[in-house]
Amino acid sequence: MLLDEKIFNRYLQDGIPVLRLYRWKNPSFTYGVSQLPENAIDFRQCLSDGVEVVKRITGGGILFHNDEITYSFVCSKQDIGEPQEVLVSYKQICAFLIRFYESLGLKAGFALESETFRDRCQPSELCSASYEKYDIVINGRKIGGNAQKRKREVIFQHGSIPCSINWDLARRYLRFLPKDISLSVTSLNEELVEVPGKNILEEKLIEAFSSLFGARFIDEKEFLYAASLA
To answer: Which end of the chain is more exposed for a tag (fewer CB within 10 A), N or C?
Structure first.
C-alpha cells in the first residue's frame, strides 16, 4: 500500500502514468482511508496468525486479499480520455476490467445493470457485502473490488481480481460475515473450468488495459524495487 501511495505521489511530480501489478505473499486485509476497522476485524487473531492489516489511500470497505492478482494505476483524465466536463466516469475507467474478463470467455457487466442491484447496494463495512454501481458482476455475482483516489485531474485506482476466495479463512478474522456471502460474490475458479496461471492473467490484464486506452508499456521494475525500499 505504501508503494501505491509512492506511485500516486510520483505522478504528481512527473506526470508519467503507471500501471502496477502485484500479488500478496500472505492472507491480508486492507481497509478504506476513513474506516475504523477495529469493529469488524479481530486484530488479536490476525496478530497471532501473522495476517497483516493495512490502510489504503482510497476509500471503500474492508477487503480480504489472498489468492488473487491486484492492480493499481495512476494517470490523468486526459490519459484515459475521460471528458473534462465529467466529474467521475467510473464506467469508462473500469471498462478495461470488462474487456479482461471477456478475454477469459466470461460475460461481465456492471452491477448497476444487475437485476439484484437495488437489493445489494446497501452500504457495508465489507467491500464484498455491498454493490457499487460500477462493480464488476459475472452471472449475477460481484467479482473483486475497486477503489479510487483523485486529486485535481489525477486519477489513482486499484483493485483485486480473485482467483479463489477462502471464506472460512476470512471468517476466522472478521467479526461478522454474512453466511450467504458466497451467493453474491464470485471468483475465477467458480466461473472457469480451469483458471489460467497468474502470469497469464497479468498478461491479459495488461493487454486489456493497453487496447482500451492505447497505452504502450515500459517495464520499470527497478524503480518499483527501489521505491519499495525507500
So the answer is: C
Q: Kindly report the backbone phi and psi dihedral angles of residue 144, in degrees, each rounded to the nearest multiple of 5, phi listed first.
A: 70, -170
Domain chopping of the chain, boundaries: 2-214
Residue numbers of the chain with a pLDDT score lower than 70? 85-88, 114-124, 129, 221-230
Can you give the pLDDT at residue 229? 39
- Pairwise CA distance, residues 42 & 193, whole Å: 35
Contact (Cβ atoms closer than 8 angstroms) between residue 76 and residue 51: no
Calculate ∠ Cα 10-74-151, nearest 5°. Answer: 80
Q: What does the pLDDT read at residue 117?
A: 58
Q: How many CB atoms lie within 10 A of CB 53?
A: 17
Query: Exposed, middle or buried by CB within 10 Å (0-12, 13-18, 19+), for 195?
Result: middle
Q: Which residue in 75, 94, 127, 163 is the catalytic one?
A: 127
pLDDT of residue 188: 98
Is 163 a catalytic site residue?
Answer: no
